[in-house]
Amino acid sequence: MYFVPEKYLISGGTASEIAAGVELAVSDGRLPPGAMLPPVREVAAGAGVSPGTAAAAYRLLRERGVIETAGRRGTRVRSRPASTFREEIRIEVPPGVRDLSKGNPDPALLPPLGDALAAAARAHEERPAMYGTGDDEELLALAGERMRADGVPAAPVAVTSGTLDAVERVLATYLRPGDAVAVEDPGWTALLDLVAVMGLRPVPMRLDDEGPLPAELGRALRAGVRAVVITARAQNPTGAAVSGERSHVLREVLAAYPQVLLMEDDHGSGFVDLPLHPLAGVTQRWVFMRSTAKAFGPDLRVALITGDPVTLGRLRGRQRLAAGWVSHLLQRAVAYLWRTDAMDTAEVAASYGRRRDGLVAALAARGVHAHGRSGLNVWVPVADEATAITRLLARGWAAAPGARNRIGTPPALRITVSPLRADEVELLADDLAGAARPASRGGPYG
Questions:
Q1: pTM given for the model
Q2: Distance, CA of 197 to chain centre
Q3: Which residues of 40-70 are buried (b: 16+ CB within 10 A; e: fewer)?
Q4: Sign of torsion, CA 363 367 372 377?
Q5: Is the pLDDT of residue 8 over 90?
Q6: What angle (nearest 5°) sits at the alpha carbon of residue 412, between those of residues 407 and 414?
Q7: What is the pLDDT of residues 102-135, one digit of tens each?
Q8: Are the C-beta atoms of 164 and 194 separated by less than 8 Å?
């Protein structure tokens, strides 16, 4: 291990751990602007890692704007450190290019909101929500009923402004900067950004089409993570969905660590036809989160959250100190949409499935093993993301770079199938196959 300067010790077993430790030291002042950092080989020797791991850590820090390397003058903390959020890793989409990079649902499959908002407005006129008003009772009842029907344990229900709102509030009540959180790799960009901003240490879990690999979850738990975040269905970006068999094994692994906070994200409810196999309740502290954004529209920012009473109480307490509540107009609109079955869930899921499964099959026929078991996205392994994106743009397609979602997994592109027409699948598969080769084929998602 290596002291830089005397007050700070560079350590960590992986590139992401080393980078997270340095970034945290910069943010809390232990590494001031301009502080010199040791050469890669000295970091590797001191931390007991390979030079490649140390170099990867420095690369992550440069990409996030934390450090700079000036040739013979060495590596130092930037005078004005600036975090580079993963969400900011974007590509410019020229006019006329089909944009498959955004991750949005198909507007044609979203339910009309006119009647729902009108009903919410009428209810507001009859009994306006004022300071101190609790969450909408009908929405809470409908959410609880639907979750119990899916096998989620009966527990209190709260309402937040989307899933990330709930994740931030819950993590903030249990964890402190430097604590470790197990996250999926590749995983949800916004979650990875949030973990970094909160000063938490991400511990990546690789996954396959059936969810996180049990061995990866076990490794993260043995490493001392205090929280685990798992996507139940329509995993972003890979489309993974936790199967019944995988759920059984993951529950067994988690049961040995009852003190760990389990956070389960089911944003796929309403547009995925695969059954839910929840993990909720296997640990003492848990939350199960169900967003309406993909099914009803991203601007309808409502998520229904259930969990153990202590965690739900902490969530509500944090909420009262900040936003206070979620608009009752939105709450009542969601309740109306659920009560009236405003969308044909099976047809919506089938529509996305035809595009997603069609593209995966077309790529397989061309020798490209892509992933997309559920949801809106297809994950396509490539040899080099920049090269593949450039080739696709030249052919009239824009894809999202996998670097936004990856920690340690191999390069890939994320293709959102929502804008894709049936007559475009074969053409896109041809162009993707040409852009992807030669792609890595070793291990889950690469």
A1: 0.81
A2: 14
A3: beebbebbebeeebbebbbebbbebebbeee
A4: negative
A5: no
A6: 100
A7: 999 999 999 999 999 999 999 999 999 999 899 9
A8: yes
9 Cβ contact list (under 8 Å, min separation 6) = 1, 2, 3
Q: Which two tokens stand for residue 49?
A: 């890692």
> What is the 3-state secondary structure of 395-426?
CCEECEEHHHCCCCCCCEEEEECCCCCHHHHH
Encode pLDDT of 267-316 as tens digits.
999 999 999 999 999 999 999 999 999 999 999 999 999 999 999 999 99
360 in Cβ contact with 161 (< 8 Å): no
> The tokens of 172 are what?
């903030």
Q: Count Cβ atoms within 10 A of the Cβ of residue 373 and give its class: 0-12 exposed, 13-18 middle, 19 or more buried.
A: buried
Q: Hey, what are 59's tokens?
A: 């690369």
Instruction: Give the tokens for residue 365.
Output: 């026929």
Question: Are 160 and 143 contacting, i.e. CB atoms less than 8 angstroms apart?
Answer: no
Using the predicted structure, report yes or no on whether residue 80 has a pLDDT greater than 70: no
Read off the tokens for 57. 């850590």
Q: Which of 92, 109, 31 is nearest to 294 (CA)?
A: 109
Nearest Cα to Cα of residue 300 among 107, 90, 87: 107
> Three-state secondary structure along the chain?
CEECCCCCEECCCCHHHHHHHHHHHHHCCCCCCCCEECCHHHHHHHHCCCHHHHHHHHHHHHHCCCEEECHHHCEEECCCCCCCCHHHCCCCCCCCCEECCCCCCCHHHCCCCHHHHHHHHHHHHHCCCCCCCCCCHHHHHHHHHHHHHCCCCCCCEEEECCHHHHHHHHHHHHCCCCCEEEEEECCCHHHHHHHHHCCCEEEEEEEECCEECHHHHHHHHHCCCCEEEEECCCCCCCCCCCCHHHHHHHHHHHHCCCCCEEEEECCCCCCCCCCCCCCCCCCCEEEEEEECHHHHCCCCCCEEEEECHHHHHHHHHHHHHCCCCCCHHHHHHHHHHHHCCCCCHHHHHHHHHHHHHHHHHHHHHCCCCCECCCCCEEEEECCCHHHHHHHHHHCCEECEEHHHCCCCCCCEEEEECCCCCHHHHHHHHHHHHHHHCCCCCCCCCC
Length of the chain in terms of residues written = 446
Q: What does the block give as tokens for 7?
A: 């007050």
What does the alpha-carbon distance between residue 446 and residue 442 come to, in Å, rounded to a whole number?
A: 5
Burial class (CB in 10 A: 0-12, 13-18, 19+), 15: buried
